[in-house]
Amino acid sequence: MGMPHKPKRPCSYPGCPELVDGRFCEKHAKQYAKDYEHFGRDPASKKRYDGAWEKIRDVQLAAYPLCAECAKSNRITPAELVHHVIPLNKGGTNDPGNLMSLCKACHSRLHGRDGSRWKNS
Which end of the chain, N or C, is more open, meaning fewer C-beta atoms within 10 Å of its C-beta? Predict the structure, then answer.
């Protein structure tokens, strides 16, 4: 028997009634990502996360498909994102030793703890 799933909730896009597992429905997830790239990311950050980064991220997730933070608590959670232990803007690199595979919840928690998600640093 599998683990129970959280109930679906409405898409976070204002006025969209679509029920989803994540934050947005497919249509609005694409729009949000496009808007974030255009309005939310600073130009220096755009340069750091290019096509080469996508390949590095894919290799990391293939090698380490489970969330490293969840594993510390003996939870098995698929990783969705790759986190830089030392951020690129603080001298970190894309070296495998500086990367962690994380689920979205753990990634958000780590960025929320250091505040880096909500300020230009």
Answer: N
CA distance 74 to 68: 10
Does the structure show a pLDDT above 70 at 42? no
118 has a pLDDT exceeding 50: no
User: What is residue 39's predicted lDDT score, i.e. its pLDDT?
Assistant: 52
39, 40, 36, 31: which is closest to 13 by C-alpha? 31
Instruction: From 95, 114, 100, 94, select the one nearest 69 (Cα to Cα).
Output: 100
DSSP 43: H
29 half-sphere exposure, CB direction, 13 A CA radius:
11
Is the pLDDT higher at 8 or at 113? 8
Residue 42, helix vs strand vs coil: coil
